[in-house]
Design a protein that fits this description.
Length: 666
Amino acid sequence: MFPKILIANRGEIACRIIKTARKMGVETVAVFSDADKDALHVKMADEAVHIGAAPAGQSYLDIDKIVAACRETGAVAVHPGYGFLSENAAFAERLRQEGIYFIGPPVKAIEAMGDKITSKTIAAEAGVSTVPGHMEVIADAAEAVKIAKKIGYPVMIKASAGGGGKGMRVARSDKEVKEGFERAKSEAASSFGDDRIFIEKFIEEPRHIEIQVLADGQGNCISLGERECSIQRRNQKVIEEAPSPFLDAETRAKMGEQAVALAKAVNYVSAGTVEFIVDKEKNFYFLEMNTRLQVEHPVTELVTGIDLVEEMLKIADGQALSIKQEEVTLNGWAVEARIYAEDPYRNFLPSTGRLRRYRPPTEEASAQLVVRNDTGVFEGAEISPYYDPMIAKLITWAPSRLEAIDGLAVSLDQFDIDGVGNNVPFLATVMQQERFRDGHLTTNYIAEEFPEGFTGARLDEDTMLTMAALACRAAFQLETRGFADPGAMTQQHMTTERSVLIGDRRWDFSIPKSDESFVLMTSDGQPLLIEDGWQPGASVAATEIDGKTLYVRMDRITSGFRMRYRGADLTAKVVLPHVADLMRHMPKKSPPDMSKFLLCPMPGQVIRLDVAEGDIVEDGQPLAIVEAMKMENVLRAERRAKVAKVNAVAGDVLAVDAVIMEFEAV
């Protein structure tokens, strides 16, 4: 086995690889940019080497610096993780020339599968089902329109070298093809240095299901079952699970056989993933092959019991696979949620800044539940605008699918993050949706279930009552703090009546004296026994109300608490009843009218301005393009208006809510 490896990556995947290497007795070398000098992967590795400035092109994508770090530290092999140089054939070839092992597939396999046009040709020749489309390079938007019409709408426009949703657009008309072609081509050029575009038929009601494969240098290749990755946003996966709730044993076997056939066709070695689009009739079509470790690999590990990073290291060391196809079994169910630094209430726009609070749920492993948190951050860490905004991957395993989902829902309740926007409320909401729990998934799930965007979850009546009761209990704890006998304090210094206001709702409680337990009486005489609860200084309340266990995030505010539970974000005011009577007469402050401004919706760079001062713009007309996290976002007019002033120029780096332009009525 290699005595020392270098990990040419950062964040959670670098930390994940370090954990397995440490278990195997392999020393690790981390590399880091200026932005990552205090990162978790740097602290975890045995050694760390600085490789340049924050932009990835000057650090994590600089092949010369990675090779130099290997020479400096004596690392004999490199694990690329995912992203960055993981599917860069030139990088793998350079390592080979330098006599450094690449913990991944051969160069020719990377080249063949890295080009989507070439890969589809090879797949067809290997007997793998492929989507109808035009696999040759397209010269311009006009040609793209002709091809799209011939294939038939809707179509998918894709970058040949694309990945992670970049350089990808769905088009349903000539107009959308023209605009999508230009945007995809521009994104592809900036993200991959390759602006070639192709077009294929877009499958309606599609599922994204992928097959994990492992292959060694002795000609052995096996599949490890599938992963359902249909819950996506902007073509990027958000929630994954294994196995798929949709496939039957026969379809699973066929997909596995085709994935193995494709891998063998390119003499594949190492871990890889063959991705398929599956329609509602269980017809499946080859999408692409990712010649690296996938972000969502933990769900496969949990249902198969196979450590994929360990297998990659052994295969790169020349060892044969230790398991045969007939020995692969799928046990139980695993679900993974990607936790991102993004604001779900603002169309999931990226959020950057310092993690003032980062307290994940406790990891555990039992015969009934496994909770795993793969992360690359810690409390006080900085979420940088230079890289992917992932904070962590939270994964649960249980004997059945619903048990795994319920376990993930509870773990999300316990996940306490503050300082940057995050998508935990959105993930928690999906866990409760009947459609998700029933397994009726497509890649359009988020667009269909949240057509107006995410505005938070609605809790049922019983849960709202428990939220109000918990707020009342917590307020009472604060009021009686410092008194040896809270009951005596209640009798002598305060009334026992309290009202809780959440939005337009009101609950009235009375607090009877008790030396042994805390009971609230509702206005209709219903007793609520509250055990444990929120403690002053804590940010998560672990409580039991009438036998129901809850984990609720709670932060103190004036006269109450901000409470977050299962995707709902509530403001609870706890006041005396006569105060509650008066509060309904208080005027409500209206938010300022910002309709005359185009605001930057996220921290990002202005790539292009499409209008000038004095122009008349129409509803839906593109106004500007802002790039954030390597994704181009088109900002459009919301109504007909005149551009009164333009406050930015192309190239400007703007903060969230910075004014890009101002309008006046016409």
